[in-house]
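Team,

Forwarding the record for the chain on the shared tracking sheet. I've put the sequence and predicted structure together so nobody has to dig through attachments.
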Amino acid sequence: MTYFTSENVLFVGSILIFCSILITKAGGRFGLPALLLFLVAGMLFGSDGLGIEFDNVGQAQFVGMVALCVILFTGGIETKLSEIRPVMGPGLTLATIGVLLTTVITGAFIYSLSYWEWLSFELPLVACFLLAATMSSTDSASVFNLLRGKGINLKNNMQPMLELESGSNDPMAYILTIVLIQLTLAIDTSGAEQVQTSELVVNSLKILMQQFAIGTMLGIGVGYATVWFMKKIEINNIPLYSIMLMSIVFFSFAMTDMLGGNGYLAVYIAGIVVGNNNIKGRKQVLSFFDGMTWIVQIGMFLVLGLLVNPSEMWKTTLAALLIGLFMMLAARPLSIFISLLPFKEISVRSKLFISWVGLRGAVPIIFATYPVVQHVPGSNAIFNIVFFITLLSLVIQGSTIVAAAKKFKLLLPTAEKNQFDVDFPEEAGQQTETTITQEMINQKGNTLKDLQLPHGVLVVFIKRNDKYIIPHGGIILQPGDHLLMIGSSEVEKA
């Protein structure tokens, strides 16, 4: 058996990461999500596989916390406020009401399984709802990774709505998990008759409002303070801006948590604020956090894979399978359709697709570690069930997102890949690309000056057959030429 020590952690860790990437490369040919394969790789190297012993739930929680901070901040800085503003109402409704409904519906179903004698499955009533609460939120890491990694382009602002939901629904799930843990322990200690349910409900609502309010305010405050500070400070070494932002990510999470707010929400909102303002070294920052996101995702899913013992998980396989299928086919769709009743503009096809993208991933597994740490009765069964359902969700839902988008006719043509790896200062204006077509030449002419670009808009480069051409007004354009243009949006409108 292999144990994690200071002497071998780098050796073992490097092998794990290298092998995981190779497994991901092979699995990608079959359309399997990369995050699923990282989980599987961790399980293969674990105690029931190659023998690496890792059972420290507290360390796994810490790894998950660090990873989620980076993932949520990266998701925030890559989110355009102009895209999420139209879907703010339905997105936040799904993140609150949707999570609550999923917990209630799923919890009731889980409790009903105890009446199926042939299943030999039984959890106390409160533990059933606790299990449902840990799985009630969609996983931001999985949603961001799959939607952006696959280059999916969706109609009706579906992508920003799904990303907003996954980035902001953790507080509700977290509060429900913590409250239900407290209720379970209280009942176990003093009995159900001694628990003041009404008082617990009132306190839960207070905590929920506090988490959302403090998390939102500090996220906005830290975000704008970061933007102001980055404009004032001069650092000669551009990469240090990325390092500074990383420190601010963890500072905002820790400070929000200490003040009683939700740190994950604060980090996500801070990312949105920073990403929608002019910051120095934007390209380097985005590249840095994109790389860091992959590193922490690999680390988080590997650690969570190492934590589980497949031999124990199989004991609850049948119950977990039934619960997982119920969530995918009944609980999630019901909660979506009920939550979105006030939003008539959202079509049935869109609601069905939103229902299908209820991906479970690292967040439910991390939430499932809280009962284990608190020694809640039945916590091991809860953890194993959540882990199995996560695998099920990533296999079934994660590998069929594109097919579902096509089925519901929500898939738009994939946006053309950027042809120019050039980064101009944002003060220089908006950077855009276009491709010359035969139709454009027939309508306007075949020279650059015939395009009649707005005053102040310049063509910087022309790319033709992997060759770069310095443009001038008389150059003859050809179909397939890629043009890199720069100019302010104000000038273009003029």
